[in-house]
């Protein structure tokens, strides 16, 4: 087997995607705050995997106490993840991605219908 060094990241699942934050860095401030505190490290260290750029979440294997899964991005890049089986992160990410894509599809249909209605009235 291949040895792989796993980088520890704190993952935050949002409606738009997945934020990968180095373990020592504070998460981004909530949007409700008007004056956000300055983060301990530059925000450039925070990596966002946006659902619009995600293709699939593939469960690779369950081994011991871990689930290994891969997020496949639209451009073909693959990012490997590992989490404890009971956390079910692969399922949570997949569900959130499906909800995001469904919202985008609904917005696209509404936009098309509005354009058709405007053309019909002209």
TrEMBL record:
<feature type="compositionally biased region" description="Pro residues">
    <location>
        <begin position="24"/>
        <end position="40"/>
    </location>
</feature>
<feature type="region of interest" description="Disordered">
    <location>
        <begin position="22"/>
        <end position="41"/>
    </location>
</feature>
<keyword id="KW-0963">Cytoplasm</keyword>
<dbReference type="GO" id="GO:1901981">
    <property type="term" value="F:phosphatidylinositol phosphate binding"/>
</dbReference>
<protein>
    <submittedName>
        <fullName>PHLA1 protein</fullName>
    </submittedName>
</protein>
<dbReference type="GO" id="GO:0043065">
    <property type="term" value="P:positive regulation of apoptotic process"/>
</dbReference>
<dbReference type="InterPro" id="IPR042832">
    <property type="entry name" value="PHLA1/2/3"/>
</dbReference>
<dbReference type="GO" id="GO:0005634">
    <property type="term" value="C:nucleus"/>
</dbReference>
<dbReference type="GO" id="GO:0005737">
    <property type="term" value="C:cytoplasm"/>
</dbReference>
